[in-house]
Amino acid sequence: MLKKLSILVLLVILQNAQAQKQTNLPYEFGKAKPEEISMKEYLRDPSANALVLYEHSNVSFHGDGSYNHYFVNTIYKRIKIFNEKGYDHGTVKIYLYKSSSGDKERLKNLKAITYNAPYEKTVLEPEQIFEKSYNDLYDEVTFTFPNLKPGSVIEYQYDIKSEFYYNLVGWNFQSDIPKVYSQFHAIIPGFWNYNRHLNGSLRLTENKSEVINHCYEIRGAKASCENLTYTMTNIPAFKLEEKYSTAKKNHIAKIEFELSRVNRPDGSIKEYTTTWSEADKVLKEEQSVGKQLKLQSSFKKLIPKEILKIKDDNDRAMVVFYHIQDHFSLNSDSRNPYSDVRVKKAYEEKAGSVAEINLALVNALKAAGLKSHPMLISTRDNGVPTKQHPVLNDFNYALAVVEINENKILLDASDKYVTFGQTPFKTLNGVGRVLDFENGSYWLTTNPKVESMELREIKLKMDEEGLLSGEVTIKSKGYDASYRRQRAAEVPQDDLLEFLGYEDSDIFIDKYRNQNLSNLDSIFVEKFEIEAEMNQNIGEETFLNPFLYRYENNPFQLENRNYPVNFGYKLNDVTKTSIRLPEGYVVKSMPKEVIKRLPNNGGFYKAVFSQKENEILIYSNLQLNYPVYNAEKYKYLKEMFKEIIKTNNSLISLTKTSGS
Question: What is the C-alpha separation between 250 and 563, in angstroms, rounded?
């Protein structure tokens, strides 16, 4: 339930004699510049709907010299709104951290102004500000700027008072709109030490750090302070609307802080950053993790006895995997991979969470005499986990790993559509942490080892009216097969048109069937009949587009992309098309062969057109040899897909012979 936020205009009373002063600002609150109000567009990005003119975060620590200490984070932003599409930036949401004990961060001194031409000022009123509980960890304060119009300049400022020293969250330099100037400034007493990490590919314009001697005192003990400033200027918008990427937070330019230790006034030290060795000890004794890995004797009785008699390790592991995969139904997908895990109970009920199913798989593999461990990962939409030290909240998914002849094979029995040695597409996110409690945990890549491929064989014939009809066969394996199997199993037959990707009303399909839907180790085969109008007549000529499967638009539209193109796995897409012409039709002209290669054996696109008697043959192959291409390869991918689209729109010219 929303409630009006109280106490908005009280000044923060600084009780520390050594309190730090805020840096001089290039902008004075309450005084927008005339040139900002009259600004029509941002020359560096004319497509921008809004622009951050200036923003900063200024962190200062305060206290009374004894026990009461806190930090204040002063946030200031001035934004230009160019059009109605930029109105989203006229609604501000502020999140205040809170603990289970009832302590919480406090919002102070919130003020906001809207400026409109010629110099009209509208001030945000207290009754326009609302506060509510967002979740167990945060309260949310929301307000919308009054009198917002295209051309408005808006500015706001507020302080967050916090006693949660571990919650110094850092600063996002980049967002979905461009920024002229963005700065993070902090004066941090030596009593608190923070690890910090600059994320993204953009570089700082200013990176300055200096020491202020004896600037802070706690109970008679004095410490020097680090006065640090991080600045970026002319920051491009981060646009993640393109395909083939992982979570935005993996790539956006930002500075992150993590409390590593507190140096107490008496000389003692409290460490906040643990080692993986320490984390392993905790996880080993955890009821939902380590204690769930001691069920091998139970699983020897639970799994079919004939499994234990299989001599070959790989074959035995494969049969164990498929047994667990078939046995369980997934009933939960918790963001906490090890939350209230009860493996034996889940096995008996034949239903469990991802963690319960894959911990059951680990136990079953161990019961079958194989070396196996659980693995923590972060999915593609959750960001990349921190590798420097354990941050268990970074992980939101659990896999199993089995070791056979020194090969480490990743498994996920919770997904009904992946085969042995394959994990779901969402898990292809770089690395995960294998929990080997005997020898120590370690990092392992999640790069796929299974081969993926999609082969389309299209056999058509054209009648006298130009209508094409025939049969399409699609053979797939690996990730392409997993996707198509899931769609075939879950999409109703009445929705075949959408299922097979045809939205063109001139294309009709019928009599769909498939093979090996449940046999995951075999190539998945789909067949259906088709009728299509893919030609147009101009005078004496008939123009035919032979590409039943084609890219309509280039997935890469940005002028520059400063984050990787992540396909997840290697692609191999092949189409073989034959079109039998009716009597009296001859080919007047046909597109030339096309081949476009990526540098460093990165892949290629090839299209070949030929004729055999009255049959037109088209072969095309798109092959991408890397799961991930760095930002420097973006222009080559963009150019290659431009060539693919050009080829996909190629036309074959046909004419009728005289007398036909």
Answer: 9
382 shares its domain with 259: no
How far is residue 303's CA from residue 368's CA, in Å, rounded to a whole number?
9
Q: In a 3-state reduction of DSSP, which class is residue 1? A: coil
Q: What percent of the chain has pLDDT over 90?
A: 67
Tens of pLDDT, residue by residue over 213-245, are: 989 989 889 999 999 999 999 999 987 667 899
Question: Which CATH number covers residue 540?
Answer: 2.60.120.1130
Please indicate, yes or no, whether residues 264 and 326 belong to a single structural domain of this protein.
no
CA–CA distances in Å: residue 106 to residues 57, 140, 159? 16, 11, 8
Tell me the DSSP string of 375-439.
EEE--TTT-PPPSSS--GGG--EEEEEEEETTEEEEE-TT-TT--TT---GGG-SSEEEE--TTT
What would the 3-class secondary structure string for 632-657 be? HHHHHHHHHHHHHHHHHCCCEEEEEC
Q: Are 153 and 79 in contact (CB under 8 A)?
A: yes
Q: Which two tokens stand for residue 224?
A: 């020097």
DSSP state, 104? Answer: B
pLDDT band at 505, cuts 50/70/90?
A: low
- Asked whether residue 428 falls in the same domain as residue 485, the answer is no
Answer yes or no: are the C-beta atoms of 137 and 98 closer than 8 Å: yes
Domain extent, residue 102, equals 3-271
Domain stop point among 221, 246, 271: 271
- The verdict on 327 and 217 lying in the same domain is no
Cα→Cα distances 93→111, 315, 606, Å: 14, 55, 50
Rounded to an integer, the average pLDDT of 145-163 is 96
pLDDT of residue 193 exceeding 80, the answer is yes
- Rounded CA gap, 181 and 158, in Å? 18
Round to whole Å and give the CA distance between 274 and 351: 35
Indicate whether 447 pLDDT > 60: yes
pTM as predicted: 0.83
Structure tokens at 158: 């507020």
What is the domain count for the chain? 3
Residue ending a domain, choose from 422, 445, 468 = 445
Q: Are 600 and 481 in contact (CB under 8 A)?
A: no
Same domain, 428 and 487: no
Residue 280 and residue 248 share a domain: no
Q: The CATH number of the domain where 86 resides is what?
A: 2.60.40.3140
